[in-house]
């Protein structure tokens, strides 16, 4: 028996498998449609003959992640799922409701190696990278559960997607397949802490996927304190790579900037940030920092956020304020998983 996870298969791979087994091509389309709609249990694939289901069962793993917790926010309808992978690792997925429809934030790894000092996920260390099918499964299983089409995907949950590059690209292929979920590339956003060679590789793909960069500081010294990745890649390398992405793809880059009281939220920081990004097709997304037990950081006051925003705007930078979603269900990245893993211990 193969240990290939059924959702890791692309439509073309499924067609090839059918061809090799002398099964008509339309069967591959039928199976792919079932999988893309979140039906992973072979018994539910009612238009597939039993003999073919048995062949599939012999060649692929059809077990999937299981939802171990589902929380629905009473404030804004945000839904948070905690999924347990087949090997016991736990990940989080969040579905958010916007005026434009549902958006999902998926994890790319169980845990994260990047060690950002302000991040709840980093505190639990690294489990493993997810396969492309496991990233895809979060979208289709959650979509089935909420019974409504998901319009956009952000790869911004637990993990660093560019530390799992090949599976990320595989996921994008699965999510954009015309015969499957059929999401437009412009409806997918990948968020990275700034692994420069991978940003460059991503640029060469010439896709229309949106890129978001976790920046959080306008200078190397402060950024190194907050994010160890800044020791490997300075802003002198990161910012030109981002400019290049924006110029080649014509997509506006988002710079994520969490405001930590007394750390990175002064007017001088705002000015330095505006100078750093000057002239780039981009916007800065200001985030009220995620406070969790044990964190050394506190969020900036509203007054500081407002001043920071004003300074950036006066200096010609587009600014958005990230709306806080699901605050009553700990929807911010990593908080629930952390609770579950600590309970286990
Ligand atoms: S902020 Fe992102 S990259 Fe940094 S440790 Fe957390 S999950 Fe990893």
What does this structure look like?
This protein is α/β, with parallel strands linked by helices and 345 residues long. It folds into two domains: 6-59, DNA polymerase, domain 1, CATH 1.10.150; 70-344, Alpha-Beta Barrel (TIM Barrel), CATH 3.20.20.70. It contains twelve helices and twelve strands. The chain has a ten-stranded mixed beta sheet, sandwiched between helices. Helix 1 packs antiparallel against helix 2 (25-36) and helix 10 packs parallel to helix 11. The radius of gyration is 21 Å and the shape is globular. The mean pLDDT is 93. Iron/sulfur cluster binds at residues 112, 114-116, 119, 121-122, 158-160, 193, 214.
Instruction: Report the count of strand segments.
Output: 12
How many structural domains in the coordinates? 2
CATH topology of the largest domain: TIM Barrel
Q: Which stretches of 5+ consecutive residues score pLDDT under 50? A: none
- As a percent range, the share of strand residues is 15-25%
| Spatial sequence of strands, sheet with the most strands | 1-2-3-4-7-8-9-10-11-12
Gyration radius from CA atoms, angstroms: 21 Å
State the helical fraction: 25-40%
In CATH, what is the homologous superfamily of the largest domain?
Aldolase class I
Q: Give the cofactors and ligands.
A: iron/sulfur cluster
Note the gap between the termini. 34 Å
DSSP helix count? 12
The CATH architecture classification of the largest domain is: Alpha-Beta Barrel
Mean pLDDT: 93
CATH class of the largest domain: Alpha Beta
């Amino acid at each position: 028996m193969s240990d290939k996870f059924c959702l890791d298969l692309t439509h073309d791979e499924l067609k090839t498998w059918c061809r090799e087994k002398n099964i008509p091509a339309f069967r591959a389309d039928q199976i792919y449609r079932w999988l893309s709609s979140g039906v992973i249990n072979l018994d539910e694939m009612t238009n597939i003959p039993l003999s073919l289901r048995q062949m599939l069962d012999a060649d692929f793993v059809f077990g999937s992640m299981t939802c171990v917790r589902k929380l629905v926010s009473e404030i804004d309808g945000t839904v948070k799922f905690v999924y347990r992978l087949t090997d016991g690792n736990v990940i989080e997925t969040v579905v958010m409701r916007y005026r434009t429809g549902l958006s999902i934030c998926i994890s790319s790894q169980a845990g994260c190696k990047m060690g950002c000092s302000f991040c709840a996920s980093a505190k639990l260390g690294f489990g493993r990278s997810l396969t492309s099918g496991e990233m895809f499964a979060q979208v289709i299983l959650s979509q089935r559960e909420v019974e409504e089409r998901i319009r956009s995907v952000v790869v911004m949950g637990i993990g660093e997607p560019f530390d799992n590059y090949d599976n990320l690209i595989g996921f994008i292929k699965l999510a954009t397949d015309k015969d499957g979920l059929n999401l437009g590339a412009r409806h997918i956003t990948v968020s990275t802490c700034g692994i420069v060679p991978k940003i460059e590789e991503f640029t060469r793909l010439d896709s229309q996927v949106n890129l978001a960069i976790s920046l959080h500081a306008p200078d190397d010294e402060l950024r190194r304190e907050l994010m160890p990745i800044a020791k490997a890649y300075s802003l002198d390398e990161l910012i030109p790579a981002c400019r290049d992405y924006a110029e080649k793809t014509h997509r506006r880059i988002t710079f994520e900037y969490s405001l930590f009281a007394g750390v990175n939220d002064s007017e001088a920081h705002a000015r330095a940030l505006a100078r750093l990004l000057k002239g780039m097709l981009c916007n800065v997304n200001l985030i009220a920092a995620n406070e969790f037990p044990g964190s050394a950081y506190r969020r900036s006051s509203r007054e500081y956020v407002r001043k920071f925003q004003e300074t950036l705007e006066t200096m010609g930078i587009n600014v958005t304020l990230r709306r806080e979603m699901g605050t009553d269900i700990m929807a911010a990245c990593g908080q629930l998983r952390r609770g579950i893993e600590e309970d286990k211990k």
